[in-house]
Structures are given as structure tokens and as C-alpha cells.
Amino acid sequence: MQKASRGPVATARDNGAESRDLRRVARQLSATIGLEFFQAIARHLAAALTADAVLIGEFLGGREERCRSVAAWMDGAPAEFEYPLAESATAAVLQDKPGLCRTEALVRFPSDTLFQTVRAEACIGVPLVDAGRNPIGALMALFRRPVSSARGPRNLLGIFADRASAELCRKQQEDKLRESEERYRVFIARNSDAMWRIEFDSPIPVDLTDEEQFRRIYETGYFAECNDAAARMIGLEKAEQLVGSRLTDILPPLDPTNRNSVLLAIHAGYKPTTSEINPIDTQGHERHMLRSMWGIIENGRLERIWGSNRDIGDLRYAEKALDASEQRMASLLEAMHLLVVILDPKGAVAFCNEYLYSLTGWCDANVLGKDWLATMIPVDERARVKSAFERGMKNPSEPIHFESTLLGPDGHRRHLDWDSTLLRGSDGAVSARALIGKDTTEFRALEEQLHQAQKLATIGRLAGSVAHDFNNLLTVILGYATVLLDKLSLVDPGYVGLSEIRKAAEEGADLSRRLLTFSRHQVLRPRVVQLNALVVETRQMLGTLLGDKIQLVLNLQPDAGSVRVDASYFHQVLLNLATNARDAMPQGGMMTILTSNVDIGGPAPHPAGLAPGPFVLLTIADTGTGMTEEVREHLFEPFFTTKEIGKGTGLGLSTVYGIVKQSGGEILVESAQGRGTTFRIYLPRIDEHTAPAPGSAEDVPMPHGTETILLVENREDVHTLAARVLQDLGYSVLEADGIERAMGLSREYSEQIDLLLVSVSLSKAAGEGLADTVKLLSTETRILFISESGEEPPPGLSERGFECIQTPFTPISLAKTVRELLDHGREE
């Protein structure tokens, strides 16, 4: 059953008609090109094929493939179409599938928007291809009625497809060139860098000398093209103001920056070169620019030069500011005496500041690139420091604090407190580790010395307290032993025992004096003496003490200054140190004594505990066995000894320490096992004449007297002993055990009292008040204070006519002191 027709059907033309149409259309299109060609072919093909629409479309790529009309003719007038290729008849044509649809076109391609717009019932099309036979467009005829035969229309479209393909290829190339030129112009115009092209009146041979090429470039060159940025760089506003200008009018040829950049391009054979130039602008300010240049050479001749200038002034200013900031930071760190170390992520040293080098002795060549832990940290501390680093990685935003020892190249050790933080790059990744260290070596030494001094002070207070009580007992023992011995004959059975008791008491008194000397409670009798003279006076005793196996060497600086010391006690210092040296050299060796003047002052490091000023340094060194660090720490403590039981009291060096400190000096010791020991004693230098040593009193019998003495003493044992001794010697003794009683007796017997014997320990203020009262009542009365060893007597004794006797005293020393004071009063 035949299908009913829905309308007129386009029928095929005979061969003669097709030939006439072809010749007619060909004649009409032969003289046209470009867009005119496309418009003509669309119009004439529509007429020749009696088509409702003819389309010449080009393929557009992108996110959605589309077809856009280059030219179109519909219903006797130009038209424009653009539609997606997906599910369209055009896509079938581009894929070189049968490009015809004689009827029911919308049924076959329901999504074809072109068909919907034209309301097409039939379509005949052929692809347009490039030289590689790749589809670039389509030539299509559309009908609103079915087509009975497509052969004729398709042949006609195919005849013009090659010409249309060629014209479409040319159009696309021109479009690309036009777009490229437009992008070029926009790039040049909108670029913030100055961009320019220089042409020449005539090409310049590149085989000329450099100077000749340079001359011709400047004399024949002119700006053929540039952007506004180039014009602004020389003080103009628009590129049009610069185009056509001669180089000699714009850029001085003698300007070193311009000359050097052009010569650099010539030397490079006009290959791309970049150089920094520093021209002076119209306001006289120096500018910083980066110039890039390259030349176009054809047939051995320079045709033109392209170039660009980039303003790097902000960069240079930023660099200078950064350099200045870094220099300020470096100067600050150096001034603050902080050590700075930068480690790379692997722990290798990337930077150390100068203070670290000057403090430790390291240099760049020995540390840069080396593992910091392996180079500068002792083996036994590396695990602890590494653990601190790992702890810091867990909290990278917080700095970590740790302590370590820093090794010098010679193994010398310094103590450091470190603060470490991680440095990050622009990507946020850890790029380095920064370490800021503070040298605490001197602080730790001072801290240790303070600890040692506090410990010795505590021990000294204990020793002084014991010695004071001990002295009171010794005073009584010595006193009564002496009194009893005076009453016995040598053949008496008790004489030997009492003699041993007194001898033991005297040895106890010596032991007490050492304890008081260490605790600095022993009252010294200092005078200005030549230190060299003290050493020479002791030389014979030192030689005897050291023996034949030990060589004694004196190296005394002739102009070594004077010091204020108690000469007798300082002899004991030399003898005790010599004894220590002798015991450290059982197989023999050498002991050296040196004296020299030293001046300590300024910010430079100096021996701990010493204030700036002039000193005399006494150095005593031996070549003995040395001592361990543990022994050195306890060296000056009383009763500390490394000798066998029964061979030392442990008070020798503690006595030395007390005498030196009480003399205003400082004693330091350096020692190591197998390397000997060196004692350095610093004593304040005195610019005074030395006083002669006091002569020794002759051994005279115990003197007697008949004068009246007021005795004021609250310690019953000492009071009883003193009263008995004085009464046995013939003196009249008025006794009082307190100030109140003494005041009463002094008023009652003011005219009879020849001497007031009063204890300092009663109460200094009260005791001195009593003494002053007695002196007011009778100016002839002499005053004698009794003080425990180390107890400070009242000031200004000699000026006020007062004297002092210390415990433990013997009956003979008390008798001599009383007699001398009374006799001295009569002479006056």
C-alpha cells in the first residue's frame, strides 16, 4: 500500500539542467573570495537547488562541539546559525556518513536545533576538510519538503566543496593570525615592562668592529614600536610620543649603563642577553632596571633589535632593606654575645655567627656542612639533645629549651643554654632549625663557687662556734695546769702529768686557732709587707720541709707589690701548701713559687670572686699526682683529708683558705690527675711602705703587782681563774659578774681602781659604756678587754687607751699583759 504524500516533492533535474546550473553558478563565483565567496555560494546554491536554506558552517571546538555558519541563505535572505553538533545531521556529515535525509528529517534527528529552526523535512550535505582530510565544516542544503532524488543536489554540493574547503582553511588561518596579532598587541600594550623595537635606516653588517656596530646602532636607530610603559620610563606619557624618535635623542651613548648593555648584546652575537642598568631619570634619581635585548640578523646584517626593560627598583630597595635588617639582627646578636647556629633538615651546619667562632675557635671550613651533633656535642650528651629535637618536632610551633656542652676544636668545653625553633619555607615545610645559645660557663663556675663558699661558710660557722666554747675550756685547763705546776717541784709525782695536760691543752689551743682561722673568726694582726720578702724568709723552712727529692724553684718578680697580711699566719700558708705539695710528690718532683703584679678590670673575664683592681698574684705549683674533681670540690673543707687515719687533721688547706679570705684575697686551684696542682692566691696590692716586723718579747718571769683591778666576767670558770691568778700575783681584785654590779663598784672605788678587766661578750655597748664611765671617774684607770678568739674587740682601742687579750690565755700571758698595761700608764 503506497504511503500518502504530505506535500510537493522535489524531483531530480536532468543532466542538461544540472550542467547549466553548474556553469551559471561557477561563473558567478569565479571572481569572489573570502566572506563574499561564502555568501555568494549560499545564495546561488539556494537558487539553483530551489532549497529553503543553504548553510556553509565551520566546526568549533571547546567544551561543547558546535557548528557556526560562515554564511547562510534562507527564504531569500542572509541568515546566521549556531547549534550543537551532538545528535545533529551535521555531525553525521562531519563523520563522512551519508549526508542525506530525503524525508522525515526531524523524525530521524529530533534533537537537531538547525532542523527545528528551519523546520526542515529533508537535508543534503557534504563535509568540508583541510589538507589532511580532517573535517573542518559542512556545506548543507535544507528543504521543507521531501526530496525524491538527492543525487543531483549532492553532486552539485560536492563540486563546490573543494573550493569552499580551501576558502574555509584560508579564513581560519587568517582568523588565527588576526587573533595572534591582537593578543600580541594587547600583550605589548598592557605589559608593565617597557617593550620596544628598534629599526635602522639601513641594515648593519655584523662583521664590523664592536665599536663601529655600536656607533651605527646609535646613529641610525630609531624606535619603530613600543608600549606606553617604555614611554613612561623616559618621562613621556604615550607610546606615540616615542615612536619615530632617534636613539641619540633619547639615550645618551656615553651613559655607561646603556653602552655596556648594547656592547654585551654585540659580543653575544645579538642572542638574548640580560643586564642590569642604572639610568638617571629626569628628576636626577638613579633607577634600577633589568634590560633584555636580542637582535634579528638576516644575510649577515642586523635588521632590528627587540628589547624590554623591567623596573626592579622596588626589588633592589627591598633587598637593601632586607640586607640592612639582617645586618642589624646580626649586629644585635653579636652585641648580645649569643651563639647562632642554623641546621639544615638533616642536621648539618648551614650557618654559624662570628661570636660562636671567636668563643670556641671553630672556623667555617671545619663546621659548615658537618653534622652538628657529631662535631660539637660530646658523645654522652648527643642522645639527650637528639631527644629534645624530636620533642620539638611534635610541637613545631613552640620553641624548645635545653642545655648542652659545646666542644671546641681542641676539646675545650663550654656550657650552653639553647633555645631552638623550626624555620619553614614558603610552602610551609620545615627548611631549617635555628639554635640561639647563651654561654653559661662563667655563670656555672660562679654558681659552683658560690655553692662551695656557702658550704664552707656553713662549716666555718659551726667550726667557729665549737672553737669558741673549746677556747673557754682550754683557758681554764691551761690556767689551772699552769698554776698547779708553779706550786710543784720537778720531782713531784704529779708534775709530769700536769705538764702533759698543759701540753695537750696547748695543742688544743693550736687546733682551735686553725678552726677559727678557717672560719675567719681569728683576729689577725695585719701589716704591710713585701710578699717577696715573706717568701724569702720562709725559703729555708720550705727547703727543709720538702726534702732532698723535691726541687724548690723561686721565680719572684722583682717589682711585685706589697700586701697587707699577718706575716706569721702567712708563713703558715706557705708551709701548709708546701706540705700538701710534698705529700703529692712521694717520688720527688718540683715545686715552683711565683709572684707577679696583675691588674684586673674592665668587662674582660677575670677570676671569680675578685673585684677589679690591682693585685699581687702568688702562684704555687707542683708536679705531683694531682687530684680528682671530687677531691677538688671538698679541698678546703675542715677535717677533709685523703691521708691515712692518724696522718693528718684535714685542717691545713682549710686554714690556708681562711687566712687568704680574711686577708681580703681569693684562692683558686687547678688540678687534674697525673698533671699536678696549681694554687693561685690573689692579694690586694698596697701602695704603702712596709712596716718592720714586731720583735719577740723576752722570756721574763711572771710579773707581780699590788694595784686594784675591777674584774667583770660572766663566765664563771674564766672569772674564777682570772681572779685567782691576779690575787696570787698580789693584786687586789674587785669582782663583778654583770654590768650593774660593776657600775656600782666603779663608783664606790673610783679612786682606787687602777685597771678595769672586762669581758667583750657581756654586751659590747654595755661593756664600752662601763669602760667610758670608769675613764670618766678616773682618767688614770687602764682598760683591758677579754675577748674570745675571733671576737671583734671594740674599735679604736689604741686611740682610747684600751687593750685586749684573747682566750685561751695562760696565767703568764695574762700577768704580762696586765703588768705592761699598768706600767705603760705610769710612763705616760
> How confident is the prediction overall: mean pLDDT?
79
Number of helices: 27
Report the sheet-strand fraction: 15-25%
Structural class: alpha+beta
Would you report the number of β strands?
29
Describe the overall structure.
The protein has 828 residues and is an alpha+beta fold. Helices cover 43% and strands 25% of the residues. The chain contains 27 helices and 29 strands. The strands form six sheets. Strands 1, 2, 3, 4, 5, 6 and 7 form a seven-stranded antiparallel sheet that branches. Helix 7 (210-220) packs across helix 11, helix 17 (441-487) crosses helix 23 (716-728) and helix 24 (739-748) packs parallel to helix 25 (764-777). The longest helix has 47 residues, at 441-487. Residues 1-14, 518-522, 644-651 and 691-699 have low confidence and may be disordered.
Attribute tags:
828 residues, alpha+beta, 7-stranded antiparallel sheet, 5-stranded antiparallel sheet, 27 helices, 29 strands, 25% strand
